[in-house]
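Chain A, query sequence.
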Amino acid sequence: MRDNTDHNRLAEQLAARLRDEAVEHGIANIADFEKKARGETPRRTRRAAAKPEPVIPSEPVRPEPARPVATVSETTAATAAEVASPRSTPTMSNLRLLRPAEPTSAFLKAGFMGFQGSGKTKTATLTAIGLVQHLRKLNLPGADKPGAFLDTETGSDWVLPDFKQAGIALATRKSRAFADLLEVIDEASRECSFLLIDSATHFWKELCDSYQTKRAKELKRTTYRLQFQDWAYLKGEWAKFTDRFINSPLHMIVCGRAGFEYDYFEEDDGTKQLQKTGMKMKAEGEFGFEPSLLVQMEFCQKIEGKAVTQTWREAHVVKDRSTLIDGKTFTFHGHTDNGDQLPLETLVRQTWTAFSPHIGRLNLGGRHLGVDTSRTSEHIIATDKKDWNPTQKRIVLDEVQNLFITHIPGQTAAEKQRRVALMKKHFNAGWVEMEEAMSLSDLRAGFDSLHMELEGRPSRYASAIAADVVPPLADDIPDHSKATTTKLGTAAAAVLDDALPERLAAAAG
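Chain A, predicted structure.
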């Protein structure tokens, strides 16, 4: 049977009836409330509570024992215990790479940077003495081993009396060779209680200089300027030091010269202004990230009239991974108000008070594991196994031949001699050396030079060659006074920086 009921109409009728009843009920309540307010309707009176009938027990009722009432502090402690100790104890038996967290930084890794006379070497020495004294109080193994000082500036001669007075034997090596830096770290890790390096700046510069000298000999040139592709090798070699710095079971304090960082800022009129943007240690550009404690030293003096009445050093904590002293500044005095030198014990106490909160967070005497450098990602990297470099070299050599055929096509003795002379002039090599030993970049540079002489215009490699040229390492800022678009006053010493200029970054893609 078909249902012809109009359900929508029925729903509307039901809703209207309910609305009418609710309105009528509300009106009645309001009227009743107004009558009560006028006193026309008597108020209700509460009924008296009925008296309970006496209960006659058939046998004596035993009182229930009183339940202990938990105090607020007991309840809070119980709640905290439930949060801290969940019902189901988590297990870590299924972890493969991850391990239960534990402090594995057991050795001090500190860095001190500053300009000349800022107190880097002295402060590092006092810190090392305070550290050894603390290790001896804790009776930790290795505390009685001699200390080590890798010296590039003869600074060890001047702090040796301090170590002798503190009863700490000191072994030194005076060298700037980067190879010696690696060997000394390995030896000191086995035989010494700490290693003080002063200064890291020289080792970075020596590594770059040695690389340039070797490349010049390989290419049979008098000099060699670092190019874009050379930085990958240099940074890879420097990583051998930073890996040892982090992972060696050895307290290491590294000093380095400070230098300013510069960058160009464009003015409203389009000119560029060279300005200081910060300060860092003059070494490989990213070394400042490695120490767990990084301190910037500064020489300060008080001048009254034309006379210097007081001098002191300030230590600005640039980085402290424990954050206990991060950003703080400590003042170190070396003399009393009368000008008398403070005793060594007082000097050590000054530095130890400043840096001991960071050292206290170390797992002294425990297991040390900086970073696991044994694992790599080679197994997940898919690369094209074909090496296109030989193909590109053959292309350039073919272009050289075609250029000779176009401009010197004959086989006379004079023409052959001219081709040999041009190869010596632009490639500084013969054909066999060009084909077998010369790098692709040098081939392209020689071809571009040859092309310019024979064709009178640059080759197609000119832009790429210009993009690959990197300015030589220097401790001085280039002279921009002749540039028409640069405004620069007196420039301070520039940083030995490996930062990639903007135009090279664009060329590198």
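Residues 54-61, 480-509 have pLDDT under 50 and may be disordered. The radius of gyration is 41 Å.
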